[in-house]
Design brief:
The structure holds two protein chains of two kinds. Chain A is built from 23 helices and 24 strands. By secondary structure, chain A is of the alpha/beta class. In chain A, strand 17, helix 18 and strand 18 form a beta-alpha-beta unit. By secondary structure, chain B is an alpha/beta fold. Classes of the chains: A alpha/beta, B alpha/beta.
């Protein structure tokens, strides 16, 4: 039991695995030599799975400081003749574009695969996005698996394809495939010595001819190369036309939507009455196959996760050939815009397609009605999160300095929770490394209130540093709160360049962020532990009054790291409790917005309700102990 | 809607309650028993107390990892409101709703003192749906058995094995994949021994 897909050596064994582990296994089987990425659901797990076996298989795995760096590192390895994998999610895919375009245009020698996990449905993301446009805009081949098994096979094959074409290949998948588990059958781990030899931009030089600008020649070549890709890919049979004689309705299922379409048809009892086109190659689209498919039916429903990427292309193909058919999808509102496609969405879409086609469904099925929905639970910081102390200190400091008026924006990550009610400490949140630039703009455009940028250590290392240097250089009057918790907590506690640990759990150099800020010429910088509320308030107050840009480093490891450590050392869990005789019901402790502190009943200033600490949730950070003026909250050990 | 030969289980709760662990144990037992299975994890983030659920589908022939509305055979709520939230959307007529009665307040209750929602009306709506309901204090049972509430998920696994109609795995098949002599197995047995 407890088989691990990365450790399994017996070819043909089925192992319970996540989709992202299938991708990782595919890369392992292809003998990948360098893996780099930046965390983001649903891609992070692939890099972690590879990191778990990198030592015995002797390859390099890293969490890079940002996605662009990861892209560059893997491209460098591929130029050096080695197979390399870059892993990012849909938001990270925005960050890599600059480097990616160069990699595609200049070419590779070793296979370079870009694995992008799109969090369609924005299950854990601030923004929903479809990265197939990124890949097609870069003129690179895109593969998308319909199952976890196909994810393994495509990942393994993509390296070979990349080498044959001399171009990076994108493997795009979505939450429904990547975050789900099922049996995946493993193949052989290939071993092939590839000599290291850095080839300087082979394509660029070989294509240059008198009278033609190199870049233009390369651009033309890339389009011819995609045609070549199509020919090569025919052998893989990732696209399949399952024709039903006399079918007037046809479904195009892209990636996972092929599996979903099959299930929907099965449930509707229509499997033998509807033609199905499975698309696994999303760039270049197989125009001939799509043409044959459109010609075989009168109504086409395009099912895909994300935007109307294939639908637009199918419309264009039909339009160009003068084929008059009904093409349905998102643009016709036959399936919903935004969110994941679910079986009920597809069933309704198929019913609609039948209506459009003038057909009736022999045995229509009823989709059960859901009961009254409940409001979603508001997300919170964890009990004992150092950010609670930071936000508390910030609110107190601005009360003193500017009558409580301020503008504060944060990066992505846990600090993001600061924009949520009930505390609403932050006004907005943005991309990784983005808060400092955003705050600079707000301040430089003439803000009458203090402008504050909130950035984590991961965000500062990701893209915050250039923005901070810009703030120094251009004298942006902002205060930067650097929430240094030594990890990328929100995506699952991945290490950062100041964690003292690398992707494989080995000891690593720790970057001195405060030192970098100082060397960059930040005129005021101070460091404080945010679990000390009063000192935090004082430090932020000082920064608000100091020359700008001012930086406050709020240094305290993520609570989850602290708990791990306490557990490893077998320490008893720390807890606090309220002493009812001392409590005046003033409500100061409530202003921490800690999920472990509640009023024991409906509270009003008159009824003297007492706060209660939920022992199961409290992690003993002692913030509330410090905040209480009446010493009415004490550590549990102190009671005994 | 016909869910065919599938058996659909939703496990809902909050980060830190062992939702994924529970789904993993079930998936391993299913794989061990040679059953087709699919499990999807749906966390809102890696943080504690964030909503999370896993959909466990037995007998799946295609990759459609999310349970369609109104087709769950069983919904387990590691927290009552989270279980009810999922059940309202998913539970089929005649399905089972197994709730750990131990509540975790919502953050909206801080400061405003806005009360935790009344569960009774929500539950009766589900009961009108011919669902069977088990409401057990799994935290208390786990704490009583092991001194810690951490095993509450394994108590619920025992409840599942005993009370869910037609659940595809036997108690023995589940037992095989739980560590011997562990606090988890004690919690599992405790749930299995529970009588309503």
């Amino acid at each position: 039991m407890n088989q691990n897909i990365m450790q399994e050596n017996k070819v043909g064994t089925g192992v319970l695995a996540y989709g992202y582990e299938a991708v990782a296994r595919g890369a392992l089987e292809a003998d990948v030599r360098v893996v780099a990425g930046f965390p983001g659901t649903p891609s992070s797990g692939a890099l972690q799975a590879l990191a778990s076996v990198s030592q015995e298989n002797n390859f390099h795995v890293e969490w890079s400081t940002n996605e662009k760096v990861a892209m560059e590192v893997t491209w460098g390895a591929a130029m050096n003749g080695q197979r390399a994998l870059c892993t990012v999610n849909h938001l990270g895919a925005n960050v890599i574009v600059d480097a990616l375009r160069f990699a595609v245009n200049y070419g590779v020698r070793g296979g370079l695969v870009l694995f992008v996990g799109d969090d369609i449905g924005a299950n854990t993301s601030a923004i929903e996005a479809d990265t197939r446009f990124t890949g097609s805009a870069a003129d690179m081949p895109i593969l998308e698996p319909s199952t976890r098994q196909e994810a393994l096979e495509m990942a393994r094959y993509a390296f070979k394809l990349s080498e044959e074409l001399g171009t990076p290949v994108m493997l795009r998948s979505v939450n429904q495939v990547m975050m789900s588990r099922g049996l995946v059958t493993v193949g052989e781990i290939e071993r092939d010595e590839r000599p290291s030899e850095f080839v300087t931009s082979p394509r660029r030089f070989s294509l240059m001819k008198p009278g033609v600008i190199g870049a233009v020649a390369v651009h033309r070549f890339l389009h011819l190369n995609l045609l070549e890709a199509q020919k090569i890919l025919l052998n893989q049979e990732y696209d399949q036309f399952y024709q039903q004689e006399q079918a007037s309705v046809g479904l195009i299922g892209c990636g996972v939507c092929y599996s979903l379409a099959k299930e929907a048809l099965d449930r509707m009892g229509l499997s033998d009455q509807v033609s199905l086109l499975k698309l696994g190659v999303l760039n270049p689209l197989n125009q001939e196959l799509i043409t044959n498919f459109i010609n075989s039916v009168d109504t086409v429903l395009v099912l895909e996760e994300g935007e109307a990427y294939v639908e637009q292309n199918v419309q264009a193909i039909a339009g160009r050939l003068g084929i008059s058919k009904q093409i349905l999808g998102r643009l016709t509102k036959t399936i919903p815009i935004g969110g994941e496609l679910l079986i009920p969405d597809i069933i309704r879409g198929i019913e609609n397609a039948f209506t459009v086609s003038g057909q009736s469904i022999p045995n229509p099925i009823e989709i059960p009605i859901a009961l009254s929905p409940l409001e979603e639970r508001t997300m919170t910081l964890c009990a004992g999160c150092p950010h609670m102390g930071t936000f508390y200190g910030l609110r107190k400091a601005v009360e003193e300095v500017s009558g409580g008026k301020y503008v504060a924006v944060s990066d992505a990550g846990c600090a993001f929770m600061g924009i949520l009610s009930p505390a609403r400490t932050l006004d907005s949140a943005t991309n990784m490394g983005g808060a400092i630039g955003l705050a600079s703009g707000a301040a430089l455009s003439g803000s009458e209130v203090p402008v504050i940028a909130v950035v984590g250590d991961g965000g500062m290392l990701h893209g915050g540093l250039p923005a901070l240097i810009n703030a120094v250089y251009n004298k942006a009057p902002i205060v930067v709160l650097l929430l240094d918790n030594h990890t990328l907590a929100n995506t699952g506690l991945q290490p950062t360049a100041n964690s003292g640990q690398n992707a494989t759990g080995k000891k690593a150099p720790s970057v001195d962020l405060a030192g970098i800020c100082r060397e960059a010429g930040v005129p005021f910088i101070t460091t404080v532990n945010p679990l000390h509320a009063d000192k935090t308030k004082k430090a932020i107050t000082q920064a608000l009054q100091a020359p700008k840009p001012a930086v406050v480093v709020l240094e305290e490891p993520c609570m989850l790291l602290r708990l791990k450590e306490e557990k490893a050392e077998n320490l008893a869990p720390k807890k606090v409790e309220v002493v009812p005789e001392l409590c005046t019901s003033c409500g100061d402790c409530m202003k921490l917005f800690c999920p472990a502190i509640y009023w024991e009943g409906p509270h009003s200033p008159e009824n003297n309700t007492l706060p209660v600490i939920l022992t199961d949730i409290c992690t003993g950070c002692d913030l509330c102990v410090e905040v209480c003026t009446y010493d009415a909250i004490i550590a549990k050990e102190a009671i005994a | 809607m016909n869910s065919g030969n599938q058996y659909n289980l939703r496990i809902a709760g909050l980060g830190g309650q062992g939702v994924v662990t529970l789904a993993t144990i079930i998936a391993e037992a299913a794989a061990f028993a040679g059953l087709k299975i699919s499990v999807i994890d749906r966390p809102r983030s890696a943080m504690r107390l964030c909503q999370i659920y896993c959909d466990v589908i037995f007998g799946q022939d295609y990759l459609a990892p999310l349970i369609a509305q109104g087709t769950a055979d069983v919904v387990i709520g590691m927290e009552p409101l989270e279980g009810i939230r999922s059940a309202a959307d998913l539970i089929r007529k005649g399905g089972s709703l197994l709730l750990n009665s131990s509540r975790i307040p919502q953050i909206s209750e801080i400061v405003t003192g806005e009360p935790y929602p009344e569960l009774d009306p929500l539950i009766s709506e589900i009961e009108n749906h011919d669902a069977t309901l088990m409401f057990v204090n799994a935290n208390e049972m786990a704490a009583d058995e092991t001194g810690s509430i951490l095993g509450a998920n394994f108590v619920m696994l025992g409840i599942l094995a005993k009370y869910a109609n037609d659940f595809p795995l036997s108690a023995d098949q589940l037992r095989q994949v739980i560590e011997k002599d562990s606090s988890n197995i004690r919690c599992f047995e405790r749930g299995l021994a529970y009588s309503a």
